[in-house]
Amino acid sequence: MRTTNGVQVPPPASERARLALALAMGKAAGTAAQALKLGGGTSVSGAVARRIDPEILQKVAAASNASKVAVTGSNGKTTTCRMIAAMGDVSGLRVLQNRAGSNLLQGVISAAVRGTDLHGRLDAQLLVLEVDEGWVGRVNAAVQPDVFVITNIFRDQLDRFGELYSMARSLEKAIEALPPSSTVVLNADDPLVASLAPDAPARRVYFGIQSDVSNDSDAPTPEHSADTIRCVRCQHPLTYKAVHMSHLGEYWCPECGAERPHLDVAVTTALPLAQGQGFEVTIDTPAGTFPLQVPLPGVHNLYNAAAALACAQSVPTQSMPAQPMPAQPMPAQPMPGQPRPDDARRALAGLRPAFGRLEAIHADGREVVLAFVKNPTSYNTSLRTVLQGPGRRGQPRMHLLAAHSHTVVDGQDFAWLWDVDLEQLVPRLASLTISGNRAEEVALRFKYAGADPAAMRVVPDRAAALRTALAITPPGETLHIFAGYTPMRELRAVMERHAWVPPFWQE
Fold this sequence. Notes:
Layout: E1 2-4, E2 7-9, H1 13-35, H2 44-52, H3 56-62, E3 67-72, H4 77-90, E4 95-97, H5 105-114, E5 126-130, H6 136-143, E6 147-150, H7 158-161, H8 164-176, E7 183-187, H9 191-194, E8 203-209, E9 239-245, E10 248-252, E11 265-272, E12 279-285, E13 288-294, H10 299-314, H11 344-349, E14 357-363, E15 366-372, H12 376-387, E16 399-403, H13 422-425, E17 431-435, H14 439-448, E18 456-458, H15 462-472, E19 478-483, H16 485-497
Parallel strand pairs: 3-5, 3-6, 4-5, 6-7, 7-8, 8-11, 15-19, 16-17, 16-19, 17-18
Antiparallel strand pairs: 1-2, 9-10, 11-12, 12-13, 14-15
């Protein structure tokens, strides 16, 4: 509604009709996409609705009193959002999220279209949005999130996002635009993220891992492919007490004295569970200490859990009632609540990997582990998690399908592959199949890592490559797939046709 001379005036009938048409056509487009097996409608419904009403996201968000969360960062967005949503579900909240990971503007709008009736009423108490780093400014401006989570900043698709400091500047603008009533949740272990927008009016909450948490990947210095290794303030090399992943850890600058902020939410213990099934962890927060079971392997999931718990504690217990788009009164609805942190253990205990995030699949008598890798940090983290998994230490046998393409979505520059520690992987290989629209370039990288070119199978077509790799893998053994975004979706589509996996939007 608009306010004129202090009096609320319903929007014109034409504006309400335009919104209703946009929602109806968006819903129809999504349904048609699924019926025609063109996908889950996770993007097309938003694209159609936005074409009819460019302000649809602003209108739907403004008309809702749901608590709103936006999550962005280079890695970990999808899993962190699923953790936040799981906490909301267990706490009894009606949760809406772009669960399939469609995080560009049209994907965010698609989630809003799916959860909104034709009068513009959003049926949710908690809105959880995964947002692509390049679109976060526009999404935040439309949604005005109560909580804005930034997981990390790594070198990622430089041809699309630019270098690290360019991305940091855009995220700073998004933080600075938040009102004082909002909370920004930042990864304190990432020097660049922790330094963002220090004078912004929004409340700040920092999460991270205590330096004395035991983890196989801990080291006193960042790995060679780490990105932020200099002080953001004075550019002097940072000194680390512990590094948990890439450049994430406890750091300080011996030159100017800058250091990691105090952790408001901290992982204080992390004990690996049997069979590589994740961790039993303890997380300290201002509201108390919470023992959690994180059923996902890899130190990156400790960060995801800490970010999710920090977010859950930052969601307001209620929001001011928003004014609905339609002229008629809204039906009475309870005010949104807060995901209860004491429900976090029950919420996370049933969590399963998101599609492509070290996803375990039964395929033709073999086990397949599908890992979505898109930058040096995600690749190295997945690689080490696999190599340190149950039965891997000291056991060289490993079957691998590596699939990468250079589309606009994936990033058109493959130079980042030279910062992936393939040299650790090659001695463990029993077989290697390479695919993608630049398969020869990926094969060259594996050659320089020490792989025997004569033993490689270069199969550019993704379906044929999957058949080849499965045929080489003996029944009962595991095929690991490391794939970029587009090849991962293509390979999963092949698996869907064999009924090995459900459509990604149904998970």
